[in-house]
Design goal:
The structure is a homodimer. The first copy, chain A, contains 13 helices and 13 strands. With about 350 residues, chain A is of the alpha/beta class. In chain A, a hairpin with a 2-residue loop joins strand 7 and strand 8. In chain A, helix 6 runs parallel beside helix 10 and helix 10 packs antiparallel against helix 11.
Chain lengths: ~350, ~350
């Protein structure tokens, strides 16, 4: 087992990464504040891991709430079902929420924890590759609004994160690929050595070789934790973690949540970022090709799907959280492992990039 | 004009108190971060003060959203209409929300600000006595859940609070009295001199004499700011501010939100706290009588209304935020100006207090 620490002063917390961790009570027990625990999971994960998780918290009074599965349920209405259950079970301010599932469950459970009685502790047990390498690190929580992704939320750090890589064995191949998109992102942002390792180890990752998976998860979490520790509330460099996301969010919202997986949308978004950077003369065509190639090798889409138009995407970009004073801030590239925040670029190059992205 | 400071380190903020402050742009302008401002108000307040408030922010691009008026609308569904408007108007992360109204508007606007894009700044312009002396100080924000008051929320401090005491001239007498209940509370908690001043100046306050009102608002805010500065997140002494509230919340929830005003419920709750303290032998009957007398002189109810039963109240107390490990924590009294947090008392004395409270 590996332990990483996300360094945030008095909100610092450990990430435990390894096989069969769901069987190891002693890891989580010190992070539960009082007797009550509420496990939040979904219909897909519950049959697979709820029993094990109940055993993990068997020293406590553990309740459960099972949500429908999918990004389309990440909204205030479904969030309220968590509050319903917390109140029905008379959970007090000392309750610890446990997020058992992917990014949607993590984001919603974290946000419920941020808001319930104005804030209670929570523990993340991410069961998808995407949530293990991304949403479980950094304390961003929230739900979607029909007009924009993650528009309603809070920064709320977990007490600890338990990553049992064995849970990936039950992950659908499409979900595994979606997670790999976020892994590639860390390479593209500022870790060229990791990007090269990923190019050489794509097959091992797709075959879920435990050592390769553990390394990819650990390095991704470490890369992200490093950024978050320097800029918890996204006043500056944390924005780099949104590489591919401003483009990606508009594809997700434009197609209707749940149609394209978040990781798939990010993959397409990273290719668009590379292509736009190329149009601006900042990267060579080899950089674009390597970006496309690694994502394709991971069975990820690299083109905007039919069902959303460039105009619709531009419209949706206007309400993205990265907009400031009407300017759409984008994360672009000066090379593999050299991303940067940009809000000054010719508008027609953005439009052209979208038009040529299909 | 008086200026108080709520001392919370880098989240410190000023409270401006005086007449005709809604006409004084220079007070708020330094606290608006960028161009966009969203004024949140309700149907009752909009015809009275929206125009003035728009003028107050005329140097900015000010939008507005008008909510229905009443505690029964303080829920996630109505909260979402604020998000709808923010997104429709394409407000970005730099937008400043302005709460123009009473406690419900302040709590909901503050919570919307806490959650929109994971946190944007806001300004409080409280227009009721209750919100001026209570909910505008301390950063507690949130909405109700059918199973409990203020169960969903956040701590989020405003940039500044503008208290124009002239707005009280349009307040219904019943609302004025409800506000006075919270004023009396500060005396009962730890300010016996203020309590005595209130006993002597009740008529002046009911007649809205500007000097008396300004003094009562200022001293209440100062008393509260003093407590909040010492215990922002209610780990300890801030709980004292809930004197009368645990009882009061169960009356509000039991009767159905909007039937009894919050301040009225707190008045009844304070009398119950005094009576229970008397049953425990902690205060003499004079203390109970003075508590009842001052509230009655302010035209406030002091008995539990028909429509809620002691059993119902006990049931609702179990889900109050003050519950820890199944124990209902109450704020009781050792005398006027000497309140304390108690979680160890004979259960039958609580039950008896409720039964005799009608």
């Amino acid at each position: 087992m590996k332990t990483l620490t996300v360094d945030l002063g008095d909100r610092s917390y450990p990430i435990f990464i390894g096989q069969d961790l769901l069987a190891q009570k002693q890891l989580v027990t010190p992070y539960v504040k009082a007797k009550q625990v509420m496990i939040v999971t979904n219909e897909t994960i519950a049959p697979l891991y709820l029993e094990k998780t109940l055993a993990l918290f068997s020293d406590f009074q553990a309740e459960q709430v099972i949500l429908p599965d999918g990004e389309e349920y990440k909204n205030l209405t479904i969030l309220n079902t968590i509050f319903d259950e917390l109140l029905t079970q008379r959970c007090d301010r000392q309750v610890t929420l446990v997020a058992l599932g992917g990014g949607v469950i993590g984001d919603m459970t974290g946000f419920a924890a941020a808001c319930y009685q104005r804030g209670v502790p929570f523990i993340q047990i991410p069961t998808t590759l995407l949530s293990q390498v991304d949403s479980s690190v950094g304390g961003k929580t929230g739900v979607n609004h029909p007009q924009g992704k993650n528009m309603i939320g809070a920064f709320h750090q977990p007490q600890c994160v338990l990553i049992d890589t064995d849970t990936l064995n039950t992950l659908e191949p499409r979900q595994l690929s979606a997670g790999l998109a976020e892994v590639v992102k860390y390479g593209l942002i500022n870790d060229v050595a990791f990007f090269e390792w990923l190019e050489q180890n794509t097959e091992r990752l797709l075959n879920l070789e435990p050592e390769a998976i553990a390394y990819a998860v650990e390095r991704s979490c470490a890369d992200k934790a490093n950024v978050v520790a320097q800029d918890e509330k996204e006043k500056g460099m944390r924005a780099l973690l949104n590489l591919g996301h401003t483009f990606g969010h508009t594809i997700e919202a434009g197609m209707g949540y749940g149609q394209v997986l978040h990781g798939e949308a990010v993959a397409i978004g990273m290719v668009l970022a590379a292509k736009m950077s190329h149009s601006l003369g900042w990267v060579n065509s080899e950089c674009v090709e390597r970006t496309e190639a690694i994502l394709q090798a991971m069975h990820l889409p690299t083109k905007i799907p039919q069902g959303v138009t460039p105009d619709q995407m531009l419209e949706l970009m206007q309400v993205d959280k990265k907009v400031q004073a009407g300017k759409i801030r984008l994360i672009l590239m000066k090379g593999i492992g050299q991303s940067l925040v940009v809000d000054d670029y010719p508008a027609d190059i953005l439009k052209q990039t979208l038009e040529n992205g299909f």
